[in-house]
Structures are given as structure tokens and as C-alpha cells.
């Protein structure tokens, strides 16, 4: 019996290379299929804007692809784990490794190490590429696929409350007194809580005592009639600083930038449960790749000729997908304040790590 955690160098490289190839193959297949389906929906909206053409479609594809890669990389690791282990089992390679004195953990060690490297690479990729692509794509989408102002601080889909009233903006650019809002809507609520009227405009700027909406059009809900207002000022209690805080998008900020945003929220006395949960999840999501070989390990062990190999593969796949379901549910509970942010982000990871280890030990060790 060997007491080293890893098998021989040759066997480690053999398993790692096999695993990486399958991860890449599954990831490319998933991303290409999902990107084509996504383009079927988005192409019409992009080409509906005068001046947009094939170049803008390619731009959308390059911005959407990093999001798909980040989201489906853990799924690819799970499916690659099942494919790799089933192949090893069918060819009796697992039996040969066990006969050589390797334990189940030693057989899985190269896959776990590879998954850890993939997780670290995923974190770096998310920080350097995905957050920027997400910010750009959301700003472009909020601007209805028209040209977005060249501003590195563009933010999209902002909602700020002024008492019972709400100021909504498609995009926010600039900062301080030069903050500019586009696709602006001001919702005024009646005492009952229903929308009494709204004011829409293409652009709004800070006047020092409110937001001046240009080319404003008012709509009265009760009378179902609209009127041209020209220029009108709304939201005198909403400052540019509040607009900046209201425009924080956790998906479009890096781990370190989001930490600064959380500190700003806390300094302003605002609720931070949602963004703090997503802040922790920026660490947990890449690390979920490490869980996949452990959850799919049930497919590696047991005699292939027993007729239960397919059942074992299904069980491994079910454990992996169950993790993603529980993880999303816990994150949603954390966003609503049902769980503490730390627990919402890390509890599913720890729980399924224990489940995977328990299944592995009871079925093999």
C-alpha cells in the first residue's frame, strides 16, 4: 500500500492530461451551443438599431462568451469527471490501479489537483475578463444596443428611491456633479403605494437641487394620458453619491472593487447582505470545480461488468447538479437576508464536500 497522496508522476500526468482534454471538449461544446441559441434571441434586437451590422453581432458574441464560460465551467468539470471515470472503469484501468495498491483518494488525486488549478484559473478569468465583459454588455443592453458613451464607469439598470418615489436609469456615466443618466424614468407613487404618474426622458443631469430630465414626457395613470413637459426637475433628495451606491452591480465588479463598495454601503448605513453574499460567492463559485471530481467519483468504482456503471454515473451526475441547485437556493436566501452571507455562500460547498467524501468512503474505502 502506498502512503503518498499522489500516484506516480507518469500516472498523475496521464490522468491530468485526460481530464483537461475532456474539460475543454465539454466546455467548448456547451459554450458554442448556448451562444448560438443566445444569438438567435439577441441578433434581432442588435440589427434593429440603425448602423449595427455583423461587427456588432461579433462584439456581442465576444462579450457574452466569457459569461457563458464562467457559468458553465463547473458543469463542464462535472461532466468531464463522469466521462473520464466511466472510461477508466470500462477499460479496467481503475481495477489495475487498485491492484497496484492505490487507494480511491490516490486515484482521484490528479483529478482534484487539476480541478483546483482550473478553479484558480477561473477566479483569475472572472476577475480580469468576465467582470469587464459583464459591465460592458449590461451597459450596451440597457442602452438598447446603441453606442455607449466611452466611459469606464458606465453602470446599467439603476434604481434609487426617494421616499415612496423611484428614479430609474438605463445607464449612469460620469461622477459627482457631472453624473449623467440616460433612459430615465421617474415614478411617483400615490399614498396607497400604486404608481400615480411617471415622467420619462432620454437624459438627465444633476442641477445641484435635483435631476433635470430633458425631452420629458409625463404619463398620468388615472387619466391614461400623456403630456410633453420639456425639461423638468425631479428627485431633489437623490444625490450623485446615492446614485453611485445604487448602481453597484456585484457581477460587474471585481472581488476587490466589490469589497470597497461594501465598505461604502456600510458607511452610508445601507443593507449589504445581498452584495456581501455575492462577494463571498466570487470565491466559492470557482472552487466548486474542486468538488466535481469528488461528487462524480462514484462512477469510478465498482465493477463495470456488474451492470451498475450507468446507475453510478447517474448518481454522480445527480450529486453534482444537486450541489448547483442547493448553492443557488442558498445564495437567494442570503440575498433576502434569510441566511448570513458567509453561511449562504460556503454552507453548500462544505455540505457537499462532506457528502462526496462520505459516499466515496462508504462505497470504496
TrEMBL record:
Signal peptide: none annotated. It comes from the Bacteria. InterPro entries: LptG, LptG/LptF_permease. It is found in: Cell membrane. It is a multi-pass membrane protein. Pfam families: LptF_LptG (PF03739). It comes from Tsuneonella litorea. The keyword Lipid biosynthesis does not apply. Coiled coil: none annotated. Keywords: Cell membrane, Membrane, Transmembrane, Transmembrane helix. One of its GO terms (cellular component) is ATP-binding cassette (ABC) transporter complex. One of its GO terms (biological process) is lipopolysaccharide transport. The keyword Secreted does not apply. This is LPS export ABC transporter permease LptG. The gene is lptG. The chain crosses the membrane at residues 12-37, 68-87, 107-125, 283-303, 309-326, 338-356.
Amino acid at each position: 500500500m502506498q502512503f503518498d497522496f499522489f500516484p506516480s508522476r507518469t500516472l498523475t500526468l496521464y490522468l491530468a492530461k485526460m481530464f483537461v482534454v475532456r474539460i475543454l471538449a465539454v466546455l467548448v461544446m456547451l459554450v458554442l451551443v448556448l451562444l448560438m441559441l443566445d444569438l438567435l434571441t439577441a441578433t434581432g434586437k442588435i440589427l434593429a438599431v440603425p448602423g449595427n451590422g455583423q461587427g456588432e453581432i461579433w462584439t456581442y458574441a465576444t462579450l457574452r462568451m466569457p459569461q457563458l464560460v464562467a457559468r458553465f465551467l463547473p458543469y463542464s468539470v462535472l461532466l468531464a469527471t463522469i466521462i473520464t471515470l466511466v472510461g477508466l472503469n470500462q477499460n479496467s484501468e481503475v481495477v489495475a490501479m487498485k491492484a497496484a495498491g492505490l487507494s480511491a483518494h490516490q486515484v482521484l488525486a490528479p483529478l482534484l489537483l487539476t480541478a483546483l488549478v482550473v478553479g484558480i484559473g477561473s477566479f483569475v478569468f472572472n476577475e480580469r475578463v468576465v467582470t469587464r465583459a459583464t459591465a460592458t454588455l449590461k451597459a450596451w443592453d440597457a442602452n438598447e444596443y446603441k453606442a455607449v458613451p466611452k466611459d469606464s464607469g458606465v453602470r446599467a439598470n439603476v434604481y434609487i428611491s426617494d421616499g415612496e418615489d423611484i428614479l430609474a436609469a438605463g445607464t449612469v456615466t460620469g461622477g459627482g456633479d457631472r453624473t449623467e443618466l440616460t433612459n430615465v424614468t421617474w415614478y411617483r407613487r400615490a399614498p396607497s403605494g400604486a404608481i400615480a404618474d411617471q415622467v420619462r426622458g432620454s437624459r438627465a443631469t444633476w442641477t445641484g437641487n435635483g435631476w433635470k430630465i430633458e425631452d420629458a414626457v409625463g404619463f398620468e395613470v388615472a387619466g391614461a394620458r400623456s403630456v410633453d413637459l420639456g425639461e423638468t426637475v425631479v428627485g431633489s433628495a437623490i444625490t450623485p453619491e446615492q446614485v453611485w451606491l445604487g448602481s453597484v452591480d456585484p457581477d460587474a465588479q471585481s472581488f476587490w472593487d466589490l469589497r470597497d463598495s461594501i465598505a461604502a454601503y456600510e458607511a452610508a448605513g445601507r443593507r449589504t447582505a445581498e452584495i456581501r453574499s455575492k462577494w463571498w460567492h466570487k470565491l466559492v463559485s470557482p472552487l466548486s470545480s474542486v468538488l466535481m471530481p469528488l461528487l462524480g467519483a462514484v462512477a469510478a468504482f465498482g465493477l463495470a461488468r456488474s451492470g451498475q456503471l450507468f446507475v453510478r454515473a447517474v448518481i454522480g451526475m445527480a450529486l453534482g447538479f444537486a450541489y448547483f441547485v442547493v448553492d443557488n437556493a442558498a445564495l437567494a436566501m442570503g440575498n433576502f437576508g434569510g441566511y448570513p452571507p458567509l453561511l449562504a455562500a460556503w454552507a453548500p460547498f462544505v455540505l457537499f464536500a462532506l457528502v462526496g467524501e462520505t459516499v466515496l468512503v462508504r462505497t470504496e474505502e
